[in-house]
Each structure stands twice: as C-alpha cells, then as structure tokens.
Design goal:
434 residues; two-stranded antiparallel ribbon; two-stranded antiparallel sheet; 18 helices; 4 strands
Length: 434
C-alpha cells in the first residue's frame, strides 16, 4: 500500500514499571501519568485548557512546555547507568508514544532517541532489547513514514537483524525485533531492495516450522512457535506491498507448506497461518479473479476441521478463538466473502472489509494497543493508510451534523479502493526490482 514520502504529523499501555527516581525526583511512572494527563502537541491542545490547579486556567504553551519537560526527563533516563532506570524510561516512552501524537517534539530529538535505542539494543538485557525495539517501532509510526523514519530504519535495521537471526538471543527480544523489522520497513522504506531483504530474513525465521522432505512437521523448541508467529505476521504485512509478479511466486511456494502448518500444535501459530493463507489467496485473486487454490477440497476439509474443533484438551478460550478465525477463513476460501468489522473512533469509523486491511489494522493495533483509535483520529500516517484524509477539526456545529453510517461506509470503501488501485501501480513499478 503506497505511502507519501514526507514527514507526517502523527503514543500503549505498558506493563508494571519500577518507580525509579530520575534527576527531577519523580518516578517514570509519575512522569508518564503527567505526560498523558497534559496532552502532547499544539494540534491536540485547545487554546485554553480546562481549569488547572487552584482553579487557574492553564494556557496551551504552559501545558505543552510541562509535557515536553516530562518527556525530556524520560529520554535522559535512557542514558542512565542503571538498567532499571533505562527500562522504566523505555516503558514510559512506550506509553506516551502509544497514547499521543508527538511529531513536532520527536522530529527535533529523533537522532538522540535513536542513539539511545541503539545502545539498548546492542548492550541491554533481553528485556531492554525487546522494549527498545518496540519503542523504535513507535518512533517510526510517530515520524509518519517520512525521510526521518527511513533514516532511522537504515540506522537500526542491521542491529534488529542481528538479534533476530541470533539463535542464542532471547526469544522475547527476537519476537520484538521481528515485529519491529516488519512494521518499520512497512512504514519507512520505499526501496524494493530493503523490502526483499526484510522478506527473506523473516522467511528464514518462520520457515524452520515448515515440514521436512518426508512431510513431517519438526518438533518445536521452547518458545519457537511465538517467534514463528511474530515473523510470519510481520512477513505477511510486507507481502501486502509486493508486486503482482512476486505474489505469484510467493503463493506457489508458501501455500502448500503453510497448509501443512495448520497441523501445528500451537494455537496462535495455527491461527496466524490460517490468516496468512487467506491473505495470500485474497491478494492473488486481486490480480487474477479466476484464481483457484490447488487441491482446494483438501484445504477446505482441513479448515473445516479447525473451524469445528472441540478437542477438550485445549483451553476453552483457545478453541473459541480458533473456531471463530477458521470459520472466517473457510467462508472466504469457499465463497470469496469477508466478514466485515467496523472500528469506531471519535465521530469516524473504519471498515475492515478485507484480509489485507485486517492484517494492516491488526499490526498497528498490536503495537499501539489501546492507543490505536487515538492514532486513527490524529496520526496522519494511519489516516493516509486507511484513506481517512486529514484529521477532522470538530466544533459545536460539526458535532450536530453527523454523517450517516452508510455515507461513511461509502466514503471509506471508495477511498480504500482508490488506494488499492494506486498500490497495484506501485507493484507494477517494483516488479523489475523484486
């Protein structure tokens, strides 16, 4: 899906954090709470905020200055000698980046933050490496996929790659690097060569789950299914950008092997495989409406078995989740029909009406968590990707003139179809490279 190559104005809940004291005397947990309570950029602040302490109104600039001071303290903590302080700083930045749009502030400090993240990735513990990779992904999303994000990706890509292919590295760190590589490449790079390298690297990770020459699935090592899931999902995100000629090659090679992986013992990996199969078939049908899956009867029987699985030795929630996903996959393969989902935020909504759109939305939701709706509302990168146009400016009059659901659906569908046509043009241009 094409993206504009310019800076865009575009922060998730973190886990339990240590309340490490910084130079200001406040813990990172307190800093994050203060940051989120203030807002983050001039575009999101009103000229006069709600009444501040003591009933005094707080002007926009004061609130912004206070927010930036808190963020600067979090960045300073990334350079601390204490690993606990660095981890707390990363957790605070992750939450802030997920919950707010901070383009202006981060553009001026992106090199400093990138340097800190590079040190954490090179020298930090497994936990710190995983956190740094996640914060770097959020930084790329914040920078809007422009030249600044591409520069950062080229700087940290070799380190993310080294961790991902290191069999001695922590599974958690490798998972985070796989997701980061996929998302950062997706939003940041326009070069076909970078895409090829990233696709090949992610393939090399999850293909170790493929059946051997005898058709037998390998016995998974501890933690490997989670790593394979992350790599496969990152890979499938990048596949949505591939040219038509490349899609044909990928589907012919991977589809039979992915079908065998539906027998995997790990439920999350099985689900990721099923969704990837549906995505590949959908992308192939976009190119050739007459495309039919080889031995579709065998595949549909396998999908039907998973969609009705009542095996009692599996957890009830796992069975329910698996049945739901594979019912949708089976319905699509058999009837070329996708079960639509509506995502509402503010006065707007996005319709997830294809496997491609679901993969893209799920990728952003995984990294932004509960902040995804905020970014859909204010982050120009996400609004561009989902065809939403510039962020809406609402006033009392606007709130009274709501667009009907049908009109919004028509607009979203038209915008996304236009983007799909443009994406196909880009695919054709990349065909010579890929």
């Amino acid at each position: 899906m094409p993206r504009k190559k310019k800076g865009k104005r575009g922060s998730s809940k973190s886990g339990t954090r240590n309340g490490v004291k910084g130079e200001s005397g406040a813990s990172d947990e307190e800093l994050t709470s203060d940051i989120l309570s203030h807002g983050s950029s001039a575009s999101e602040c009103t000229s006069v905020l709600e009444e501040g302490l003591g009933g005094e109104p707080v002007d926009e600039q004061t609130a912004q200055d206070e927010t930036e001071d808190k963020l600067k303290q979090c960045i300073d903590n990334l350079m601390d000698k204490s690993s606990k302080t660095r981890l707390a700083g990363l957790a605070s930045l992750r939450q802030a980046f997920s919950s707010r749009v901070l383009y202006d502030f981060l553009t001026e400090r992106r090199l400093t933050i990138s340097d800190c993240l590079e040190r954490s990735l090179k020298k930090g513990s497994a936990e710190e490496q995983a956190a740094a990779a996640t914060v770097f992904t959020l930084l790329c999303i914040q920078l809007g996929g422009g030249d600044e994000a591409e520069e950062g990706f080229k700087m940290l890509c070799p380190i993310l790659t080294a961790i991902l292919i290191d069999n001695t590295a922590s599974i958690v760190a490798r998972q985070s690097c796989a997701r980061s590589l996929g998302m950062c490449c997706y939003v940041s790079t326009s070069e076909g060569e970078d895409m090829i390298k990233s696709l090949a690297l992610l393939e090399s990770v999850f293909m170790s789950s493929y059946p051997n020459r005898e058709g037998t699935l390998p016995t998974p090592k501890p933690g490997s299914p989670a790593l394979h899931t992350a790599a496969l999902q990152a890979w499938s995100l990048l596949v949505t950008l591939c040219p038509a000629s490349r899609l044909t090659v990928l589907l012919d090679f991977h589809l039979p092997k992915l079908q065998a992986c539906l027998e995997s013992s790990d439920v999350d990996y099985r689900i990721a495989v099923g969704e990837t199969i549906a995505l590949l078939v959908e992308l192939r049908r976009d190119v050739d409406e007459e495309f039919a899956v080889d031995d579709s009867e065998s595949m549909c029987e396998c999908l039907k078995s998973l969609a009705t699985d009542g095996n009692k030795h599996r957890a009830k929630n796992d069975r329910r989740k698996q049945r739901s996903v594979f019912r949708d996959v089976l319905h699509y393969i058999e009837n070329d029909d996708f079960t639509e989902e509506k995502i509402q935020f503010g006065m707007e909504s996005v319709y997830i009406d294809s496997w491609m759109r679901r993969r893209i939305y799920d990728a952003f939701k995984e990294i932004l968590e509960s902040g995804v709706r905020h970014h859909l509302q204010f982050n120009s990168l996400l609004r561009d990707i989902f065809g939403l146009g510039p962020p809406l400016i609402l006033d009392a009059t606007t709130k009274g003139n709501k667009i009907s659901r049908f009109e919004k659906h028509l607009f979203n569908s038209a915008a996304f179809k236009a983007r799909t046509k443009q994406r196909n043009k880009v695919r054709d241009k990349r065909a010579d490279v890929m």
